[in-house]
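In response to reviewer comment 3 from the previous cycle, which asked for concrete evidence that the modeling workflow produces usable outputs, we include below a single protein chain processed end to end. The sequence was submitted unchanged, and the resulting structure tokens are shown without manual editing.
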Amino acid sequence: MLPEQIFLSFNMLPVIGTIDVPSGFPVEPNEIIASTILLIVGIAGLVFFAMLIMGGLKYLTAGGDEKAVTAARQTLTNAFIGLVIVAASFLVAQLIFTIFNINTFVQVINPPTP
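The workflow returned the following structure tokens.
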């Protein structure tokens, strides 16, 4: 017997309610791949935002120094190039999912109602 069951058998542990195991976790391979890609896109978005803030702060604190301004512009340019690459890879993955008739990201997040 589990300790909780022993306490419950003696009515020593009050039962407030039950917690159900959350549903909706990806179990199919296509759902796992789609969830992983969405996680990577989200992390890439956070990295883009951090680089954007960093480049903006560098630009503001450059103080007219041409080397600092150039470095800040390069940081901002790299951030936007990274964002374009991530968006393009997301669209390519969406296209591959559609070609092979696999559940797309939208269907994994919001499954169609019967």
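Residues 66-99 form the longest helix (34 residues). We consider this sufficient to address the reviewer's concern, and the full set will be provided in the supplementary archive.
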